[in-house]
Structures are given as structure tokens and as C-alpha cells.
Amino acid sequence: MAVPPRPSADQRFPDARAQQLAALIEPTVNAHGLYVEQVAVASSGPRTVLQVSVDFEEGTDTVDLDTVAGVSEALSVVLDQAEKNDAAAPLAALDNYDLEVTTPGATRPLTEPRHFRRNIGRLLEIDRTADERSGGDAAMTARLKEVDEEGVVVAEVIPAPKKGMKPKIGPDTHLSFGSIARARVQVEFSHKD
């Protein structure tokens, strides 16, 4: 899997500037029923972008574009007001910046128990740690069935030996969070249980 790791809870705001901005914007994001996944300020040449990634904290619903647009508009107002009152000190040094509000995306890496809970029922690509491979492959494709305090219960999906045949479904298996090196949702175009 060539997907970069997703920030864990303690890496959502990578520097002091992001932490200050997060404190400023979290109340507005929370008022929209969402959770701030990550805040970052990225520069590329003369362009600076304030990136805010939002998602639902629990459940399996996805954030729609209208909600993202509403959050973006509300954050623009909050940031404009904060700049006038010097509350947005981390942005004061910038001549201008672009606000980019997004969701983490369908194929984002899953790093926290709540990320897994939000994807129950979905097909995952899972890389297991070297200690947990039991002589088998490091990677597996599996349907996420349950999430508990220690890990996840999955049913491995074994590819069909011939085209047109259905894949085999393995038994339910519990994987501890510590045994999962990397996991992400595999996009499916249709799924029937």
C-alpha cells in the first residue's frame, strides 16, 4: 500500500501554529456536528494554504459537499473576524492565504479505533506487522465486522481462483491494533452480503 500514514490523535496539529488555529476553528466545526481531523498550514511558493480536514466523529455517514461548503463559509467568517481582533495571530504574518476545507477521503489510512468504527461493514486492505504474519502474507483484504477496545474482527476475502467465480470468505479473525501496521478502506463499486 503506497498510502502515507494518517495522523494519529496526537499528530492532528503538527506544530504550534496549527494548534493555535485548531483552538480557534474547532468550536465552529463542532457546531456543525463535525470533528477536526487535521489542521495544517502549507506553503508552496507564494501560495499558502490553511488546510482543515473534517469528518464525523462517530457513525458511518459521510460528510456531504454541502456540509463542507457550509463549514468553509463559517470558518471564513470566523477567521476574518479573528484577524480583525488579532485572535488569528498564526495567520497575521501571512499576506494572504487560501482556506481549504476537505474530508479525509475514502482511501485514507485508518490509525485510530474511531476510524475503524466509522468503517464497519467496509472492505479493508490491511498490512500486518512482521510479528503477526504467522508465516503468511503481510497484506490481506478483509471485511470489517466489529471493533472493540483491543482491535478489530475481520473476515478475510480470498480472491477467486478464476474470473467469474466468487471470492471465498474466511472465518472471523480478531486482529489487535498493535498487529496492524497499516489499514485503509478499499473502494467498492458494489457490495452484496
Automatic annotation (TrEMBL):
GO BP annotations, alphabetical order: ribosomal small subunit assembly; translation
Domain of life where this protein originates: Bacteria
User: Cross-referenced Pfam families, in alphabetical order?
Assistant: DUF150_C, RimP_N
Q: Where in the cell is it found?
A: Cytoplasm
Tell me the ranges covered by the Ribosome maturation factor RimP N-terminal domain, including all copies.
24-106
Ranges for domain Ribosome maturation factor RimP C-terminal come to: 110-189
Q: Does the keyword Zinc apply?
A: no
InterPro entries in UniProt = Ribosome_maturation_RimP (IPR003728), RimP_C (IPR028998), RimP_N (IPR028989), RimP_N_sf (IPR035956)
* A cellular-component GO term for this protein: cytosol
Membrane-spanning parts = none
- What functional role does this protein have? Required for maturation of 30S ribosomal subunits.
Q: Kindly provide the name given to this protein in its UniProt entry.
A: Ribosome maturation factor RimP
Instruction: Name its species.
Output: Nesterenkonia natronophila
Q: Please name the gene that encodes this protein.
A: rimP
